[in-house]
Design goal:
Elements lengths: L7 H20 L2 H14 L1 H13 L6 H7 L2 H24 L2 H20 L10 H18 L3 H9 L5 H26 L4 H27 L2 H21 L1
Helix pairs in contact: 1-2, 1-10, 2-3, 2-6, 2-11, 3-9, 3-10, 4-9, 5-7, 5-9, 6-11, 7-8, 8-9
């Protein structure tokens, strides 16, 4: 096994994955936002993005029964398919951009998104099919470049009239569909290699245990309280990454 996979850096990544899994289980969306900036600092964006996408693509497995009952396919599929179409354009930035600039961009995205949600900002624009397609295209470009295409979609979904269980299910489906699309693009570009796959495989158990724990916590405690906790955590981590 590569020594880098059993180093202190790797065990830090394990701790990050465990925390991200808990947040993912609670919120339905926070895994990539917690993991991507610090993993990009540890491994670089071109390794962090595929590792996170591999974990996210299968993270909804413990939640599929509840998701199938609550998801609104007519709402989320146009967004997700449009996002998949734009992922290659973001992938070009992942390959060509300066890694340090990209890492800082990842942290800045999380900071801005967390501050907007903590401030109670809600999307109040159009909600028809054109808006969903445009939203998906923006998110897809962000996903391909940074591994984090969720923020604009989350802001859109959380501002709607749906109950939190439906919003959470919609976001889970979106993350899985777009992560699979992004992984196909990264494989085509040669970024998704054996080292990325092995790292994701080693991080998967703690990430999935965290997701199961978070799912159970979601049903027992205040969703608002956990959401605020997740946002504050993401804000603190990303601010540290941005200043590092």
């Amino acid at each position: 096994m590569d020594d880098s996979l059993i180093s202190a850096r790797f065990w830090i990544a394990v701790a990050i994955a465990g925390a991200a899994g808990v947040i993912r289980g609670i919120t339905g969306f926070g895994g990539a936002l917690v993991m991507t900036p610090p993993l990009a600092l540890l491994y670089g964006p071109q390794m962090a993005v595929p590792v996170v996408l591999l974990l996210e693509a299968f993270a909804a497995t413990p939640m599929m029964r509840d998701i199938a009952r609550a998801v609104q396919w007519r709402t989320i599929m146009p967004i997700s398919l449009a996002a998949c179409c734009m992922v290659p354009f973001g992938g070009y930035l992942l390959v060509t951009a300066d890694p340090q600039d990209l890492r800082r961009a990842m942290a800045a995205i999380v900071i801005i998104f967390s501050l907007l949600l903590l401030a109670g900002w809600r999307y109040s624009g159009a909600r028809g099919l054109p808006a969903r397609l445009g939203l998906g295209m923006i998110g897809g470009g962000m996903l391909g470049a940074t591994g984090m295409g969720g923020p604009p979609v989350i802001l859109y979904l959380m501002s709607g009239p749906d109950p939190v269980s439906t919003t959470r299910a919609n976001m889970n489906v979106h993350v899985v569909v777009t992560s699979l699309g992004a992984l196909a693009m990264l494989g085509w570009r040669g970024i998704l290699d054996e080292k990325c796959a092995l790292t994701a495989l080693l991080l998967a158990p703690v990430f999935y245990v965290g997701a199961i724990v978070g799912t159970r916590l979601f049903s027992r405690f205040s969703e608002r309280g956990f959401r605020q906790f997740a946002l504050i955590l993401m804000l603190a981590v990303s601010t540290g990454i941005l200043l590092a």
